[in-house]
Design a protein that fits this description.
16 helices, about 0% strand, about 425 residues, about 85% helix, globular
Amino acid sequence: MMNSRSAYVAIGLGVNVLMLVRGVAMMTALGYADLGLIALVQAAILFSGMLHFGLLNGGYRLLCHAGPKYKQRIIDLAYTGFAIIAGIIALVALAASIWLDSSLYRLIAALTALGGICSLLRAWMMNEMVAAGRLKAANLINGASMLVSLAVVALLFVNGVNADPALIAVASIAIQPVLFATLSLASGAVLRPKGLRYSKRLGGVVFRAGFTLFLTSIAIQFNSLIERTYVSSELGLEPLGRLYLAFLFLTLFQMAPNLVQQVFLPGIVRHWKAGEASATSRELRNLLGITLGYCTAAALALWLLAEPLLGLVLPKYVPDLRWVYLLAPGLIAFALSAPFALTYNVVIDYTWYIVAYGAGVVATLLTFGGALLVGETFSLDGVIILRSGIYALMAVLLVIGWWRLSRRHPAFRLFSPQLAANRASV
């Protein structure tokens, strides 16, 4: 019988399949220019959804072992922060609407802002449900919101619908986090705030636990936003749309490892807090084994099945697989480094996170900025090779950091922590 952790991952993978269906629907109905616009909107929503300034990471870390009263205080603090962040995002969207010259783009800007705000809430609510062990509720709400998103994107194929196709696509993306947040609150699957209040002491604890990790998580989305903005401004929306298949692969590929890590983190934290070194090491090995198996299966599927399957479903996009193949090596290396990097969350030591993600941001800015300064323009190949190389660079630095950290904390070594401790004492 499937346990709750396995079911959570299985449903998450099922949602992945639905996301793939949505992506295929958009690629079938939209042209490259519209797909480029969708790529920009998705980057903006993901970036907005990461603007939690440490509330998400720090709060989740504390929720994993908080008592009922302390948990409610964390909830109240988090929603106070989210209300402020939502106000800022809304103001930015309003300013953008004044600058934009068409009602269509203004409406897309509003939907993007709403999607970004609710993506932030969805990430918090998902983490809260995982930390509390309410995996069934997370599964049901996640699946239901994705199905509604598919129903909206299906309007692209309905005769007589007068809405702009790009607007329908954006609405289908935005409605998923909106519905997830609404259903989570309405069903009682997550705790509601009892009031908007800020505790300086608790805020300090949450931000100390989460702000550094926030900087690292926002770095990936910042890189993505810079990359897509560069392509759209220097090459145009249509070339950006040609990268949509690579972006879709990137999103889908990363979801499964992220789901598995969400499931494993609370247990690893509890074992670590209890001083159970063997259990901590075992869970880390299990996580690495699952990630390695997933990456191996994904690489084989990409090698053997991607071209023939895409040729059957979307033959027009077969040439675009070129950029998926260029992206995959660095992306797989980055995914394999994630179980090692998880140890930073457990001990709340993010030094090497800062080093790795900081190096990625600096490399992105220097490369694109340097190209603009000297008047050179990256090709699409160059853009994707750069992204893959940055993923590989960050992966190497994250594993180096884990190695150094595990010298101080033998529980995070992949072999027997007792043996490691004995060797260290000799």
